[in-house]
Each structure stands twice: as structure tokens, then as C-alpha cells.
Amino acid sequence: MKEANLNQIILQNILQYTDIGIHVIDKARKTIIYNEAMGTLEGLAMHQVVGKDLLDTFPSLNENTSTLIRVLSIKKPILDKVQIYINFKGQKITSLNSTIPLIWKDQIVGALEIAKDITYLNRLSNKLMDLQQELKNNNYNVSKGEIKHYTFNDIIGISKNIKEAIKVAMRAKDSPSSVLIYGETGTGKELFAQSIHYEGIRRKGPFIAQNCAAIPETLLEGILFGTEKGGFTGAVQREGIFEQANGGTLLLDEINSMSYGLQAKLLRVLQEGYVRRIGGVQDIPIDVRIIATTNEEPLESIKNGNLRKDLYYRLNVVYIRIPPLRERKEDIPILSNYFIEKYNPLLGKNILGIEEEVLDCFYKYSWGGNVRELENTIESAMNYAINNRTYLTKEDFISFEHIIKDSNILKSNVVEIDKPLSDYLDEIEKQIIETSLKIHNYNITQTAKKLGMRRQTLQYKMKKYILGAK
Ligand SMILES: Nc1ncnc2c1ncn2[C@@H]1O[C@H](COP(=O)(O)OP(=O)(O)OP(=O)(O)O)[C@@H](O)[C@H]1O
Ligand SMILES: [Mg+2]
Fold first, then answer.
1. Is the CB of 191 inside a 6 Å radius of any atom of ligand 1?
2. Ligand 1: does its nearest atom lie under 6 Å from the Cβ of 320?
């Protein structure tokens, strides 16, 4: 088969089976590619679009409102634009679109639009905001015990490192200054943020947490600052969480995932002390304390272009670094016992502790998922433990052989050499990749970057070692 034919078949299959809408026009604005997913989004059949002039197919568009036509003239991509429209079938659709100029030998030859249906995401974010509003209106009282919130008493640890972090947090609890918390996944960032709020002078005010990752910029902007009728969502008038958190604390989780543009808008709000809803004209004064968290070292984030320097200076008034568990192994026994006590009544067990041998492995293990991983490990072992068991033994940790095994591999002076070196190296490689994947929430690009390998190589190794998000 000729290569050109093969490429043709591959392209056809990609276009047919992807759930991303694809629309390509040539420079005369005639549609040359329009796939089924795009048809589903826009409520049109392929034959109604292919071969036709774009403005004939979409008479409501013009040269200014059609992104495809605009890209033909500006010759630059328009990326990640949220579009909300009623399609030809009358359905309200929210899509995330990128439009890219097609350039061949310095000449524009056409434009490509790719669109992802994020209607469900928009619906979810609206629902979330409604729920938050409802919580607030009903004067939902957290102190009545309807919801568990954390205080400093819940932060367990005796190591110098963790005590130092707690000291800084306690000193900052009554101040209005912003706080930046850095810690790997599972180190207790949320625990610290809640403790600062619920033990500080704002404890009677609301505490609202918002994750900044995984939500497209325009939706997040609406969630943060609110929307007015006729704003980009075409949606109802709604307060943003800045307004909802007024008088209290707003936790912005994973600030390093927020887009650069939105970081600039956030900075403006923090500096000026008021917000303006999207599509609104009124400046609404706000009094909100910000706690931001990041799982990447802040200076590294700035270097990688994930965090604006000016926003960093604004947030970093109080800086708390929560050390990873491997840097405070002396906390492992006390944390383990704390979790045993926590799960005893929930699981109907009466366990008193962990056998020395297991603790020994715990000390040697690297705990990529930090305290959360330790908690899950203990909870799981307690489920396996037979009923009259008083101390957790190695057998109870059956789904965690890797902890037992990894801790052995790393004790190279004690290992009896009973297999080829390559097998040991494979095991170590597997452990490092697995840990790094956990730290980066199974994000392939970030993990590959950190490990200095290509994405394809990482994917190959994940297959080889059967690693993937659990
Ligand atoms: N020092 C600690 N003492 C007791 N429990 C802890 C401690 N640190 C963390 N935990 C527990 O570990 C789990 C993870 O904590 P938390 O959600 O605060 O981590 P995080 O840093 O926000 O993680 P992520 O980056 O994944 O959001 C929670 O169940 C929390 O209660
Ligand atoms: Mg968290």
C-alpha cells in the first residue's frame, strides 16, 4: 500500500472515531473536512457542510464572529476559547475550541478548528456554584458538627520539620495576609488551610475551597468572580466564590495550574480589594483571606512558567512548606497509631499497633503519596487483619507488597544476590516511576519531564511494569 493511501486511511479513522469535533476550511472559506463529532456538537450532518462556503452553512456568522475566518486573516491561533451556543437542534452547547491557521511555505492555506464538548462540565460548575450558594443561604452551621472541619489538633507529628510548619501556620492564623502552602500531594495542605481558618479570627466566616486545576480558564473565571446576565455563559446572574467567601477564607488549590491570564486577573482583585462579575459593571468590595496551595516548589513553578512572579510575591506573605513524609520518618509511628485509632471504631476492630518488622519497612519506603498513602495503607491492612489480631503484621499488608519489597531492594547491603542485576534495576526503575507518577497525579507529561524521559518512553515503561492510575 502506498504511504499516501495509508495516511489517508489513518486520517479518516481518526476523524471518524475521535470525540473531538474537527472542522477545516480552505483559504476560500470552503469546508474541506468536517467530522461526525463536530456534526453532533453543532447538530448538522457532514453533507450539509462539506464542500460549502462557511457563511452559507452558518448564515448567523460573519467575518468578525467566525473564528475560522478570523484565523485566516490574523494567521495566528485562537486557543481554548469557551463558546456557548444553541445548536441547529436547539440544544445548548458549551464547547472548548481552538482554531489554528494552516500554513504551508509561509502561505496561509486554510484553518482548522477543534472543539471539545464541555457542556457537562459547565453544568457541573453551575451546579457547584448553586450548591455553594445554597449552603450559604441556609446558614449551614459547620460548628454543629454537620461537617467535619480540621483544626491544629488534627495535625499529627512530632518531627522538628512538621512542628516548625505548624508554628508558622499558628502564628499566621489571625492575620489577614495571604498564605502560600507548598507540599507534595497528601502532605496535609488542606488540613493546614482549614486549621488556619477554623482557629483564626475568621472562623465564623465562610471557608470555601476551589481547585484551580482541570477547569477551563473561562469557566474558572466565572466561578471565581461571578457572572451577570448576558455575560459569557449567557447564564443567570450568579455570585462568584470571592463574594461567597466574603468575611472568610478562600482556599485556591493548585494555584500553579491556573492559567497565566487568570492569575493576572486574580492579582488585580487581590490588590484592589474588589471584584467585577463577568459581564457586570459594578465593582463589589470584598474582604477575603486567600490561602493558596501548590504541589510544585514555587520558585520552580515561576521558572517553568506555571506561576506569575508578581502573584507569587502577593501570595507569599506567609509561606508554609509542609515537608514530605520521607523527610520526617520519625512521624511514621505516631501517624500510624493515630490512623489505627481512627479506623478501629469504623471497622469494628481492636488493633493496638503495628509489628516492628512492618514499621521497619515503613521507615525504608519512600511514601510518594505521603500521609494520605500511609493512611490508606493502614486502613487497607486493618480490613485484611483477622478479627482477633492485635498487631498488624506483614501478612495484613497483602496489597502493599511493594512497600515491603521496595524497602528491601533499597537495603542493598542486606539483599542476598539471587537474580541478575537487570532485574534489580528494573525493580528500582519501576519504583521510581511509580512514585513519580503518584506525585504528579499520573500526569504523563509532567512525570516524563521530571524523570527526564520522553513521554513515549514513559508510556512504554508504564506498560512494561503495568503501572497506571488506580
Ligand atoms: N499531619 C497529619 N496528621 C493527620 N492526618 C494527616 C496529616 N497530614 C495529612 N493527613 C491526612 O492525609 C490526607 C491527605 O491530606 P490533605 O488532603 O490535607 O493533603 P493535600 O496536601 O491537600 O493533598 P493533595 O495535594 O493531594 O490535595 C487527609 O486524610 C488528612 O487528614
Ligand atoms: Mg488538597
1. yes
2. no
pLDDT of residue 238: 83
If you measure from the C-alpha of residue 384 to the centroid of ligand 1, how many angstroms do you get, rounded to a whole number? 23
Q: What percent of the chain clears pLDDT 90, i.e. is strictly above it?
A: 56
Q: Residue whose CA is closest, atom 24 of ligand 1?
A: 185
Of all protein residues, the one whose alpha carbon is nearest to atom 28 of ligand 1 is 372
Q: With respect to CATH, is domain 326-406 assigned 1.10.540.10? A: no
- In whole angstroms, give the CA distance from residue 186 to residue 331: 14
Which residue has the least CA distance to atom 25 on ligand 1?
185
Q: Give the model confidence (pLDDT) of 117-170 as tens digits.
A: 888 877 777 777 777 776 666 554 444 445 678 999 999 999 999 999 999 999
Span from the CA of 182 to the centroid of ligand 2 (angstroms): 11
For the domain 121-323, what is the CATH code? 3.40.50.300
308-321 CB burial, b ≥16 within 10 A, e <16: beebbebbbebebb
**Residue pair 212/253 in contact by the 8 Å Cβ criterion:** yes
DSSP H helices in 159-231: 160-172, 189-199, 217-225
- Written as one letter, the residue type at 379 is E
Fold of 416-470: Arc Repressor Mutant, subunit A (1.10.10)
- The structural domains of the chain, with segments of one domain joined by +, span 3-117, 121-323, 326-406, 416-470
Is 0.70 surpassed by the pTM of this model?
Answer: no
- 372 within ligand 1 shell (Cβ under 6 A): yes
